Amino acid sequence: MSITTRAALKAQFKTGAIPTSQDFFNLIDSTLVRRDDAFFGKWAAGICYYEGDVVIYNNALYTCVPAGDKPCGCDGKDGDVKADKSKGHCSVDNPEIDCTNWKMLDIDASDEDWEIIRNEDKVPIIMYAKVFGKIGMGTEDPKARVHIHVEELSSDFLFSPDNAQSPEFVIQHTGDGTKSLSEKLADNKAVFTTNTEGFLFTTTVPPVPSDGEENTPKEAVPVKPVFIMTPDAGAAVGIGTIAPEAGVDIQNQSSARLLLNPVQAVVPQAVWVHKAEFSQQSHLSVTLDDHVSSFTTNAPDGFYFRRGLDETRNYLKNISQPSSETLVAIKQDGRVGIGTETPVTNVEITKANSAGAFLMCLDNTNPAFSIINNRPNNEKRNYLLLGADNDWGAFLTDASKGFVFKKGREYGNGNELEINQGEDLVTISAEGKTIIGGITPAGFDLNVKGKARAFGLYLDTDVRKVNNPTKLGNVIDKVKKLNPVTFTFNQQKANCPGGEAQIGFLPHQVEEFFPELVNTDTDGTQTLAYANMVAVLTKAIQEQQETIAALQKRLDALEGK
Predict the structure, then answer these.
(1) Which fold has domain 458-561?
(2) How far apart are CA 301 and CA 20, in angstroms?
(3) Which of 14, 134, 458, 510 shows its CA 20 to 30 Å from the CA of 179?
(4) What is the pLDDT of residue 2?
(5) pLDDT exceeds cutoff 90 at 210
(6) Which whole number is the average pLDDT over 530-535?
(7) Which is more confidently placed, 37 or 487?
(8) Mean pLDDT, all residues of the chain
């Protein structure tokens, strides 16, 4: 006998080939044998049925569910051997008696998808499908493989609609305008489509009325829903809200809100909103356009940039109060603090337990930059202030020893950051005394440790600035005792070339005769006021001239002139 199935025969005929006598034989054989059909007509004893096979018995449909508990002899086994479920069931007792291996099919024919033929006693004897390939429940015109219409809900459920190109399920509501939800698999994607206001995902539904309770609408328990809107402007997702005002609007906490690309935004934008007591709200907005990224907030304390101190695995555990260190603070008035949350001026740069701070101020009449030194004992701080007004560039300090200008060592090894190195070039003491080539004022207003050159030097002895001017007494005898010498400087003690010969006096020798010309420092160093020697030498010349004039007078007398 042929083993060709009806499906194979159907495919062959669809090609347009002319059937042969063998084809007709195969068709008749396959129709009678029904090798690929689960319906076997009326039940007959002694036939081996398999799971899912359907038979008719006493005007009822039964399906085979082999339990494997009946002896089977169809394959030559002994009668006391139980049949394997996979090998079917050798039916001996009719389905009404053998309830273990047969179950009655329960088919609801009330939706008129099936035509029922009854006998003269109104007993159903046969039922056949009115719509081939479709099932309609509540409708005589199904629009899908399975179409369920619920009139009281004005709704339709369509499994695999007529025009579907992929697996699809559609829910429709036919109230004021048809609203639909489609779920399908297409292009390796799960696709959800709707013409409603959007998609709402929630975990709570309105409570169902109890028995005897009036069927009136009730509000569901408040939940944090997820809602996907489909406005003309584009999709909007609401988490914790059914009225999203942004591409993503998250309101899963009463005091917190996050909006990504708000509806009114024209550039990429993210907005954080915090709801405080008394309905006060603060916000942070981050935007990006083709020129600049912008950060905007109305938070009372401005912006804080912090470094987290918790390990990553502990951060989420302590996220409400994470351990952190503030690196940069930008206050609402525009002040910037680096290393501090409370900048005292426009910009303050500092560090906890550090050596000091930098302050930049533009709030006063003139701009200023201040360097603050924290003394080790923190008892007192001192500063160096640089600034400018309309007339001057200013340097100010309250350091006890004033200013010092140094020649630093070569760049590298931290020299560019260390002030306690290098050679002292110029010192200006707190009293205004200046030293060129050292740091010890030693009582002079200007102390040059080295050569000095000028195109003019004027000493101010204005009569208005001196007291008790008195004529200098005779000095000629003292001048004659002075000891002019030549010498060279000791380079280890003096900042002068050691090989150059000098002419002058030794201050200690001059001091014996003219102590007014000699100054002795606290360290014993003696210096000589060479310019003041002019007055001494002038007086000596005057005395010599007087002597010369007297001698000339005597000579003239002797010569009779």
Answers:
(1) Arc Repressor Mutant, subunit A (1.10.10)
(2) 94
(3) 134
(4) 42
(5) no
(6) 93
(7) 487
(8) 83
- Report the alpha-carbon distance of residue 171 to residue 549 in Å, rounded: 141
Q: State CA 412 to chain mean position distance.
A: 36
Tokens 């100054």 -> residue: 519
* Residue keyed to tokens 């009326």: 42
pLDDT band at 412 (very low <50, low <70, confident <90, very high): very high
> Which pLDDT value is given to residue 17?
62
Show the CA angle centred on residue 404, arms to residues 401 and 410, nearest 5°: 140
Cα dihedral sign for 341, 346, 349, 350? negative
Q: What DSSP state is assigned to residue 463?
A: G
Residues 27/8, Cβ–Cβ less than 8 Å = no
Place of tokens 């359907």: 54
Question: Does residue 284 contact residue 299 with C-beta atoms inside 8 Å?
Answer: yes
| pLDDT the model gives residue 206 | 63
Side chain identity at residue 297, one-letter code: T
pLDDT at 324: 85
The structure tokens listed for 246 are 């942004």
* Angstrom distance (rounded) from CA 502 to CA 530: 13
Q: Residue 533 phi/psi, 5° resolution?
A: -65, -20
Bridge partners, 190 (sequence order): 185
The answer to whether 258 and 275 are in contact (CB under 8 A) is: no
What contacts 320, CB < 8 A, 6 or more positions away?
none
Contact residues for 532 (Cβ-Cβ < 8 A; gap 6+)? 516, 517
The domain spans of the chain are: 306-378, 458-561
Q: DSSP of 248-304, one letter per residue? A: EEEEEETTEEEEEEETT-SS-EEEEEEE-GGG-EEEEEEEE-SS-EEEEE--TT-EE
Look at residues 426, 421, 417 and name the one whose alpha carbon lies nearest to residue 395: 426
Q: Are strands 144-150 and 135-137 parallel, antiparallel or unpaired?
A: parallel
Q: Strand pairing of 446-448 and 434-436?
A: parallel
What distances in angstroms separate CA 561 from CA 366, 482, 546, 548, 558, one per listed residue?
Answer: 81, 38, 20, 17, 8
Whether the per-residue pLDDT at 145 is higher than 70: the answer is: yes
Where are the extended beta strands (E) located within 141-280? 144-150, 155-161, 168-175, 177-186, 189-194, 198-201, 226-229, 236-239, 246-253, 256-262, 269-275
